[in-house]
Model the fold of this input.
Amino acid sequence: MAVVVPFVLGLLALVDGGFAGFRAATGRNARIDKRSYYLLAARRGLTGGTILLGLVALLVAVTLAGSADPGARYDELVHTGVRMLQVVVPFAALVVVSLLAYWVLPMRESTFVILIGLGPFTLMRPAIVLGAAVWSVAGSADRLAWAVAIAAAAGVLAVEPLVHRRWYRAPV
Done:
């Protein structure tokens, strides 16, 4: 668990970063063939997510290095991560099922999936991320756990606006 929890959280944050880059670019290009445009946007989001995730990892590493009992603090962080995953994994599973349905179903049904799934999930995403951060630190007195949860949530939510402002302010 000590390695799996941070790995899964990091993987989810990076995938979310790629999708955030895609979302930042959508609706900004009137061209017909947008595949390379969206792939570049996803890479930009992934890069932004990687940088912000790296800052959170740096916060953890520096704090643990200066801690009197790094093992106990790391265990508290893993416990906090498990609680965060309790909120994020079911949401991610619903998004994956919706994406699969969107890609597999015919056009009319795919449009319906966007209306009932992907659209509302995009709107709910900030509340889910903040809820996961709050749930993860509920009952924890460890300030590092609080700082990491808040920094991680802020980082995940910051990728899309940062990518949008940097590259996709004006339509192509």
Notes: The mean pLDDT is 93. The chain has one domain: 4-167. Residues 70-104 form the longest helix (35 residues).
